[in-house]
Each structure stands twice: as C-alpha cells, then as structure tokens.
Amino acid sequence: METNQYLDLFLDESREHLQAINDYLLELENNPNELSLVHEIFRSAHTLKGMAATMGFEDIANLTHKMENVFDRVRNEELAATSQLLDILLNAVEALESMVDEISAGGDGQQDVSHLIEMLDKFDEKETSEKEDAEAEKSAEASVQMQLNEFERAVIDESKEQGYQALHIQVTLRKDCMLKAARVFMVFEVLEKLGEVIKSEPSVEKLEEENFDQQFSLVFITKVNQEEIQKKIMKVSEVEKVDVSILKISNEIVPVQNVELAAAQEKKQTQRNAQTKLSGQSSKTIRVNIERLDQLMNLFEELVIDRGRLEEISKELRVKELSETVEKMSRISSDLQNIILTMRMMPIEQVFNRFPRMVRSLAKELNKRVNFEIIGAETELDRTVIDEIGDPLVHLIRNSLDHGIEAPGVREQMGKDPVGSVTLKAYQSGNHVFIEIEDDGAGINVEKVLKKAIENEVVNEHEAENFSDEEIFQLIFSSGFSTAETVSDVSGRGVGLDVVKTKIESLGGTVFVESERGKGSRFIIQLPLTLSIISALLVEIGQEKYAIPLSSIIETAIITEKDMFHAHDQKVIDFRGKVVPLVFLNELFEVPNSEQPDEYYSIVIVKKGEKMAALVVEEFIGQQEIVLKSLGNYLTNVFAISGATILGDGQVALIIDCNALIK
Amino acid sequence: MSEKNQAIKAVIFQLNDEEYGVDVQQVQSIERLLHITRVPKMPDFVKGVINLRGVVTPIIDLKERFSIEMTEYTNSTRIIIVQVEDKEVGLIVDAANDVIDIPADKIEQPPEVVGRIESDYIRGVAKLDERLLILLNLNKVLNAEELIAIANIEA
To answer: How far is C-alpha A607 from the geometric centre of its chain's CA atoms?
Structure first.
C-alpha cells in the first residue's frame, strides 16, 4: 500500500507524458527529420517506463520499453519515422492511455499488448538489414552541396557585386575533441572578424548543442583570401582539417515553399521553446485537488455572507472605526473572490490536446486529407466547463470532417486545395469564451436542409417559406435531423447536433453556425467564463425567493389583465407580435400564501432557443451575481429547478431552470 | 474479542415519545433548526433545503417520512445531518441529546411493526435497562429511488 499515495501523482504524470508523446508523434509526422522531437518522445517514454515499473504496472512498462527501443533507433537514425511506424506507435499510445484510465478507475492496468509489442519488435528487427543502405545514403547526402534558399542567394549575389567572394568552408574537428561547442564558437569568432557567416550546416543551434559528429560546413562571405582563412581557423586547437573552396552555386533554386517551411519550422521551434519555458515555470505550481478548491470556495461563500451581516451591523451602529474596517474587509474579500475564481480556471489545451490524433485517424478512415490547426489552446475556462465541453467538440469536429470537408478528388474538381483545412480556435471576449470550429468544406446546403426539415416534420412548408438562411442553419440543431446521404460510423445518426446544442445550453452557452455554400462553415460556441458564478435576477413569489439566470432572460415587463388573452385554455400575451404563453410560477410551484395581484402583473420573459415564455412573479428584487450550488445527490430531478444559491442573508434560493418551463 | 462484546456507538434522538438511534459513523453533525427553503413538487416529507455552512443540504422530516403523528417544532427540535453513501441529508427530529454504546448482543431483530414504522427501515431494536431503542437503517430511509417513486405517485 506504500505506493498508494503516489498513485494520483503517477496517473497525472503518466497522462502528461502520454500527451507529450502523442503531440510529438503527430509533429514528427509532419517533420520526420526533426530529431529533437524524437529526443523528447524518448525522454517521455523513458520516464513513463520507469514510473510504471516502480508502481508495478508491468504491461505499461513492457510496452513503453519496446516503444523506447524503437525511438532509440529512430533517434540514432537507424529507423525512419514512416507513417506506418507512427501508426503503430500511436496505437501503442492509445493502448497506454486506456491502461492508465483503467488504473485510475481502480483497475490493475493489465491489458493484452502482445500484438503491439510484436509489431514494435518487428520494426526493431526488420530495419537492421536496411541499416547499411541507409547509412550509405546518408553519406551520399552529406556530399551534396549545401542548399541555399532565395534569401541566402540574394545576399551572396549582392555581396559578389560589391567585390566579396562566397566561400564554402568545411571544418573537421579532431575525434578526441572534448568541447566541440567551444571549438565551434572559436571558429565562428575567428571568421566573424574576417567576414560574415551566412549559413551553417548543421544549424547554429545544433552546433551549440554539440548535435553533430566531427564535421560542419559554413557559407562565408569575405574579401580575405582562402589560404589565410584556412590558416587562421587551423590556429584553433583541436581542429583537424579545414577545407576552403569557392562556393559553387547550383542552378537548382530551392523553391520558396521551403522558405515558408523553414519559417514555419522556426515558428514551431520558438513555440516549442515557449513551451519548454512554460514547463520550466510549472515547477513553481502545485497540484491541488479540485475538491479542496470547492471547499475553499464554500468557506469563502460563508465569509461573504458574514460580510453582508457585518456591513448591515456597521451601518446601524455608525461607528467610524467599525465601518472603515468593514469596508477594507469588503475590498479584500472581493479580491479574494477573483483569485479563487481564477484558481478554478484551466487552459482549454487539455481538451484540445486529444483532437489532432482524432482528426488524423478520422481523416484516414474517411480517405480525406485534412490540415488541422489549433489556435488559442491557452484560453482559460472554468474546470467544470472544461470537463463537459469535450464531447460536443468531438461531435462538431467529426461533423466538419465527415460532412464539411469533401473528398480530395471532389475538392480538386472544384479548384480547391485537395487538402482541406479545419481550424479549432478558442478566445476570450468579455465574460465569455468563444470556441470556433471552421472548415473550408462544402458548406451547408440550404435547400437540402430545408427539404429534410420538412420531411422530418421539424418545420412545415408554410413556416419554411419565410425562413432566412440563418434560421435554416439553426434547423440542423433540431432533433431527428441529419442531411448526410449515407449514415456513417462517424456521424449522421441524426442525433449529433441536437445533443451538442443541448449540452452547450446546459453549460449556459449557445451555439450557432455560419456557412457559405462551397466555401465552408463555421460553428461558434459561446460559453460563460465560469459556471460557478452566474448573473441572475432575483424574484419574489409569496415569501419565497427564486433566481432566474440572466442568460435566459429577454426582458422584464409589467402588464395588466387587459394585456392577457386566452388561447387553448392558456393565458398568453402579445410580445412584439409573438404569442407568448404565461406561466404563473406561484401556481406551478404551489407557493403557499401567495396573492394574485389585482391589477399589475410582473413578468419575466425568458427564452429557450427561439421559443419564449412569460413567467409571472410577484416582485423583482434585483440583479445579482450568484454562486451556483447543487442540490446534492438526494434530491435529483427536481422539477424546473437547476440548482440553488445562498443569498446574502444566508438563506437558500432556488434557481429556476427556464428550459424546463418552455415546451 | 468476541462479537458479543462489540458495541455500536449510536446517536440517540426522539420522535414523539420513542427513542431512535443511528450509527454515529453516519452522523456528520447535529444542528438547531435553521431556515428551510421549500423545494416545490417534492413529497411532503421533504421539507426543503438549508444552507449548511455553504453546502445546500436537503432536509426531510423523519416523522412525516414514517407517517407518524406530527407535532409543532419546538426549541429542542434538531436537524441531524447524516451521510449515507454519496448522499448528505438532514433529518428533523424532536430532540437529540445522547450518544451511547449499545452492546451488539443487546440488539435484536426488529418485530414486524415497531412504533408504526415499517420494519424495512429498521436495523434492529435494543433494550437497555428500561429504554427501548430503535436503530434505523438509513440506507433504506434515504433511498432516492423511493423518493422518485413517491414523487411520481404524488404527481
């Protein structure tokens, strides 16, 4: 049982490492030659293996051990990171994730991984015979002339015009050289006095990391002659050989794309650097159980309630010292509230993280080519929202891939890039966080949607006539709706978007879609920053107080008996040309001692999607930020109540679930 | 130690003139009567919810739960906060003033009907000197499925 206390830590860290392996594998697929990625993966796999072995999870340890072997060979350039290999490795990561999940669910994390191990073993052996070939190829590559991009060529051309000459310098260090980076630095220092180094192979970063064998080449612009340069470099100790030749510029121009690629890689590099910086910072963070944060929040709420009482007392007593102290306390406690709330916020990254792999495998399954991009993964959301938002996003992304992006052939015919693009973007705006899923696919076919909606009796033909495109787009969120011609595994069960909408609304958010035929669609999800504190209108019915979330309120009004009409045994009002049913909350909630007003009725007009209802209350108390609390596990499925909150006087007020009141 | 010598620590409370006990392990705290917010469309015995140090806690009236004679709440009325599985619930009782050890061998199987409470809710009865204690089976008393069933009947 000794290891028990480390289990949580093990689970957290394993997940982190698996996520890291996952991310780097996907990146490796795009840059198969980026060995630094392999190093990262190797490191994570190694740590994971060690941890799993310590904790006694042998299957995890075995599998990671095999993965480690394979990574080791990739790292030593004995094995190429082919897509085939990556498939197996990603499968292995998936298996590891499921094992970790099982352990966290209380299982023993055992799983039959023999087939994966076998496949990894095969890779481990198979390539040995090809090793020599690869080596030969490698040396051939080394003799290939240095490739220059357009910028470098431009620099060289220009300097030639000014009487400089471009040299190709190849420096070989002695085999026993201890401080390669230092020697490189000294060589550079010598050269910089004589001219300008415009390119090095391997790159300067790699040279600094001693990430090369004995040899490196430079492109150097100078007016000094070759022998002198050679002599000066030879003065640096531990240099074995220096070849200086005039640079021959091949006619083969490296296409501009490569420049872009290089720029992109550079960007990635800086991003990665930023990440490493971040992970460096994370040593200053501690893990806290979410329950403790909840407790802290609860205690803080108690404090707020007592603060309210103190404020009242100080008002009554009118003692200067007391009121000053209370005021100061109020300020501090509102700062504290902000801090506690932000403590519960987490970057949405951990939800987004799993999508690249999903998109990759889905695209393969669908025979589509997709470029998936994530923007704004650092955007923060309340932990509770983070936990819930994953599934709706999976649905939407699947939807984009399945219904949005066309097959490569179709795309080419339409004059589009055969590789479709799907962008997942998160950003904060005001008190809301927006998540957008954009694709450059087919867009929504308005006629088809309308036809289907009429067929499935979501709307009738008469209604449909006056629909704007936006209204038609919203139809795809109705239940029992799917326009995909064939039902696939991916989506098209006709429940997807309906479920997405309900889920997002239950989180206090909204979802809508923009689309242009043939150009693509964009799903926009708007979520509140936090679920634990919402703005609400407090109302009174009889002696009871209720809270109505502002997010579902359109407006409040005071009406008289004359404004009410009867339709189908139901009292209704005319609200801006729409017939809105009245809901008498005192009757509905069976409120004791409530009086029906004689003349004026206070109503709150609430919405659920397009539908509305007018809730009749007795009195408006005012708008307030309230803390959402659950009613606990004993009272479940309370009619039309979504939760409770604690008011300033310490009493509990129930929060009305408007969605349940509108049919 | 033989089983016979083992004792159960129980919180003793009163409903009308009868004494009941619940396992002290299941009791979180004992509170004075607080303001209760009514929750609509609930069975009558669910009195509502209270603010228990920041946690919204449902309250049920045990006498109404067992359908025994109701009396007004008095100064000695208490709310016993109990935790059963993942449910935290407050029970309104007439008085709660004792914690005692009940030797296991003093606990007997409940007779068919004890104090007009169905035997399902009773874990056993214990006779100590002149006192008769009824030990409750809270898991049964707080069965949420039953709550839903009752709610459905009333609706």
So the answer is: 30
Is residue A252 classed exposed, middle or buried when 0-12, 13-18 and 19+ CB atoms within 10 A define those classes? Answer: exposed
> Distance, in angstroms, between A629 CA and closest chain B CA?
7
**A98-122 b/e (C-beta count within 10 Å ≥ 16 → b):** ebbeebbeeeebebebeebbebbee
Yes or no, beta carbons of B37 and A630 under 8 Å apart: no
* pLDDT (tens digit per residue) in A613-655: 999 999 898 877 777 788 887 887 788 888 898 887 778 999 9
3-state secondary structure of A371: strand
Residues of A classed as catalytic:
46, 68, 399
| Residue of A288, A302, A299 lying closest to A383 (CA atoms) | A288
Residues of B in contact with A591 (CB under 8 A): 40
**B118-125 long-range Cβ contacts below 8 angstroms, 24+ apart:** B118/B66, B121/B66
- A27, burial (CB in 10 Å: exposed 0-12, middle 13-18, buried 19+): middle
pLDDT tens, A308-361?
Answer: 778 778 888 889 999 899 889 888 887 887 788 778 788 888 888 888 888 888
Structure tokens belonging to residue A290? 């979410």
| Stretches in chain A below the pLDDT threshold 50 | 1-2, 127-144, 251-264, 268, 271-282, 485-495
CA angle A484, A490, A494 (to 5 degrees): 45
- Evaluate if residue B81 carries a pLDDT over 90: yes
List the structure tokens of A410: 């179709």
Q: Which residues of A459-469 are buried (b: 16+ CB within 10 A; e: fewer)?
A: beeeebeebee
Q: Are A654 and B55 in contact (CB under 8 A)?
A: no
A131: three-class secondary structure by DSSP: helix
**How confident is the model at residue A96, as a pLDDT?**
84
Domains of chain B, with CATH numbers? Answer: 3-150 (2.40.50.180)
pLDDT value at position B113?
61
* ipTM for the assembly: 0.86
* Chain B residue with Cα closest to A305: B54
Of A252, A266, A503, A264, the residue nearest A390 (C-alpha): A503
B41 and A590 within 8 Å at the Cβ level: the answer is yes
Q: DSSP for A287-312, please give it.
A: ---HHHHHHHHHHHHHHHHHHHHHHH
Residues in chain A: 663
B144 and A CB contact within 8 Å = yes
A632 is written with which tokens? 């606990």
Which residue in the block uniquely carries the two structure tokens 């108690």? A302
pLDDT at position A34 is 76
Q: How many other CB atoms are found less than 10 A from the CB of residue A128?
A: 11
- Do A646 and B56 count as a contact with CB atoms less than 8 A apart? yes
Q: Is pLDDT of B42 > 90? A: no
End-to-end alpha carbon distance in chain B:
52
Find chain A residues with C-beta within 8 A of B53's C-beta: 298, 302
pLDDT at A615: 93
Given a contact cutoff of 8 angstroms between Cβ atoms, the answer to whether B52 and B28 are in contact is no
Give the nearest partner residue to B56 out of A305, A592, A631, using CB atoms.
A631
Phi-psi region of A55 (alpha: psi -120 to 50; beta: other; left: phi over 0): alpha
Q: What whole-number distance in Å separates Cα of residue A266 and Cα of residue A246?
A: 29
Count of Cβ atoms closer than 10 Å to residue A278 Cβ: 10
Strand partners, A168: A219, A245
Which residue in chain A is spatially nearest to B155 when comparing CA positions?
A: A639
Q: Are A495 and A479 in contact (CB under 8 A)?
A: yes
Tokens at A365, concatenated: 């399954």
